[in-house]
Specification:
heterotrimer, A alpha+beta, B alpha+beta, C mainly alpha, B: alpha+beta, 4-stranded antiparallel sheet, 7 helices, 8 strands, elongated, C: mainly alpha, Arp2/3 complex 21 kDa subunit ARPC3, 0% strand
């Protein structure tokens, strides 16, 4: 093969790479949203943020750090973060209620700003995360969170 | 002849050894324990503010005639909207009026997990309407951190953070102590408006003809700019007249009144040491490069 | 007498070739080390506040290709990659720790392979575009792989991947073009004095 042919093949490969990268991104988003590994936070009918188990773990660490800096003792365990902190981190503020859907046939849960106080999100081992009521004896409300809808 | 060959070979080896040592020493020094941010957290590029503009694209820095409800677009040179640090970052933004009273802000962002291209932008908007003809100070604390967790605003601002001063459009509304003068100088509804609320704690004494921006204010319960206030702190309220300052002085004569906030001074010092070493490394590399070029040139000359 | 010594010295520079890895001579090994050092130093010194992913590829891949173009031997890219990787660890550039070396080594190894595929014609602008872009993209892929190893949330790795890939390809191609131009100009001048 001559150099010119190799150059043409190389350029085609580059186009394929860039296109494939965008395609991979879209596929990951779509598949992740379906299987609960990528949870969209929806406000005004638009996705404002994506969450996953890794984000929940990191936010948990961040919340603990900030509580420590503020001299507060947070009672959240490892891999746990309060729902309020997650919403704040996603840039959600001034909402009327939030509606959390679970993967599969689980019920949707509606929570007002006053209800989220004791609610925590904790990461599962299968790269999903659950929602639990800390105030209610750590009762798991949703086993695998699939979507968080924010209503103004 | 053999001796000459050996001499040259040893000379060449010595030169190579020297250049290798020259390159290795500053690098080793840099990487050594606490001398720089180079170990535990890595060397991070500094985070800086690129621009702060209004909706129409004009810069708000030292601007006059700023609308009373401005939406300020702040562009940084790194990702500052990451979910992980947003709660921390949004506490770094403060808006103070001329009296140092902190005003509520509405911050907005577009998450990088949704639109990667807007990750350097934060939109800042006062929660309420600003007072006309009044100077304001938008302060961004040096703790502002980029997504990498290591680049902070302190690196480009000498641990001072960013202070942006601007003045709103319109004529300043003054609250006057005497009701008769108030009726003369300002419409009653305006005097009772937002500007009045902002200055409610201050007694203003001054000639009727004094220019509003240069009016000297002495307040019995004046508020001071909160120099050492933590991001969430409310402005300090002065208990005596001595504690309060004239408007002009409070606004203009304290370039550094916006103090580092929560930034860790020790960490900053370490970063500074790291940057000094970085300069040494750069200089050493420059010398090395020049030496290399010189050796190549001399070899070429000898050969040719 | 002097001429003879000169000849001997010139011969000396050629003889140690067998004793180094990839059959690269002492002088070339040192030059490659210098290029490797330059790559690390450039990443450190040219901290441009562009804020675009992959902009370092302009000089990173540019220098990598320049080194390979001027010393067109198999293994040259790998050596530069290893040197720059080791120095990057010493510098502490980035959060990946020792794994960071892979980000430098992978493009170096790939460069050696791609140079063979493109018949070592690194002075060609189009070859520069393709190799630079591919090297830059390989660096991005390595970063993603390291992110997975280091347990960085998938959402941060996946979202924006297309945009990051596009910019890496563009900046890498730009570095490749610059390198090709420099190789074209420097190679004939250095050919007489550099043992290649």
């Amino acid at each position: 093969m001559t150099v010119n042919k190799r150059i043409i093949a190389g350029i085609l490969l580059l186009i394929l790479i860039v296109g494939g990268s965008y395609f991979f991104e879209q596929i990951t988003k779509a598949q992740g949203s379906r299987n609960g590994r990528l949870v969209p936070v929806i406000q005004h009918d638009e996705t404002t943020a994506y969450l996953d188990a890794g984000v929940i773990r990191q936010l948990g660490r961040q919340e603990q750090e900030m509580n420590k800096d503020a001299g507060e003792t947070g009672d959240n365990g490892d891999n746990e973060v309060s729902l309020g902190f997650v919403l704040g981190s996603a840039g959600v503020a001034g909402y009327q209620y939030i509606e959390v859907s679970g993967a599969g046939d689980s019920e949707d849960i509606k929570l007002g700003p006053r209800d989220i106080g004791g609610i925590v999100l904790s990461s599962n081992s299968n790269s999903t995360f659950a929602m639990a009521d800390k105030a209610g004896g750590n009762r798991v409300i949703i086993k695998e969170v699939a979507k968080i809808y924010v209503a103004d | 002849m053999t001796n000459g060959k050996m001499r040259r070979r040893s000379g060449l080896l010595a030169l190579l050894l020297f250049t290798v040592l020259l390159s290795a020493l500053p690098l080793a020094a840099y990487g050594d324990n606490d001398d720089g941010p180079g170990n535990d957290q890595g060397v991070f590029k500094p985070l800086g503010l690129v621009s702060a503009t209004l909706d129409n694209g004009t810069s708000i820095i030292k601007a006059d005639n700023v609308p009373l409800k401005p939406k300020i677009t702040m562009q940084f040179d790194k990702n500052v909207v990451s979910l992980i640090y947003w709660e921390k970052n949004k506490r770094c933004f403060h808006l103070y009026d001329e009296n140092g009273k902190e005003l509520a802000l509405i911050l907005s962002k577009i998450n990088d997990t949704v639109d990667f291209t807007k990750r350097q932008y934060i939109w800042v908007e006062p929660a309420g309407q600003l007072a006309p003809g009044t100077g304001y100070r938008l302060y961004v604390a040096p703790d502002l951190v980029a997504k990498n967790g290591g680049s902070t605003l302190s690196m480009t601002t000498d641990n001072q953070g960013v202070t942006i001063r601007f003045k709103t459009a319109g004529e300043k509304i003054r609250q006057i102590s005497g009701p008769a003068i108030a009726a003369e100088d300002a419409p009653p509804d305006a005097a009772a408006g937002s500007a009045g609320a902002a200055l409610a704690d201050n007694k203003i004494t001054g000639g009727a003809g004094a220019a509003s921006t240069t009016s000297t204010v002495t307040g019995s319960t004046g508020t001071e700019p909160a120099p050492d206030a933590a991001p969430e702190d409310t402005p300090v309220t002065g208990g005596s007249a001595a504690a309060s300052k004239p408007l002009a002085e409070a606004d203009l004569d304290q370039p550094n009144e916006a103090a580092p906030g929560e930034a860790d001074a020790a960490k900053f010092a370490a970063v500074q040491r790291g940057r000094r070493l970085q300069n040494i490394v750069a200089a050493a590399s420059g010398i090395l490069l020049a030496g290399w070029a010189a050796v190549e040139v001399s070899r070429r000359k000898k050969k040719g | 007498m002097l001429d003879m010594e000169k000849e001997e010295m010139s011969a000396d520079l050629k003889t140690p070739a067998d004793s180094f890895i990839f059959n690269i001579g002492l002088a070339d090994a040192i030059r490659l080390t210098m290029f490797g050092t330059l790559i690390s130093v450039s990443r450190f010194v040219f901290q441009l506040p562009i804020g675009m992913p992959g902009h370092t590829s302009v000089y990173w891949m540019g220098l990598l290709m320049l080194g390979k173009g001027l010393i067109p031997k198999f293994g040259a890219g790998t050596i530069m990659g290893i040197v720059s990787g080791v120095l990057a660890i010493v510098f502490g550039l980035g959060k990946e720790g020792p794994l960071l070396a892979f980000k430098c080594i992978v493009p170096g190894v790939l460069l050696d392979i791609l140079a063979i595929l493109f018949l070592n014609k690194l002075e060609s602008i189009w070859v520069g575009v393709i190799i630079g872009a591919l090297l830059s993209w390989s660096k991005l892929l390595t970063s993603i792989a390291l992110g997975v190893i280091l347990d960085i949330p998938v959402v941060f790795l996946a979202v924006g991947f297309g945009y990051a890939a596009l910019l890496h390809v563009i900046f890498g191609a730009a570095g490749g073009v610059l390198a090709a131009m420099l190789i074209k100009r420097l190679k004939p001048r250095l050919a007489s004095s550099w043992q290649t």
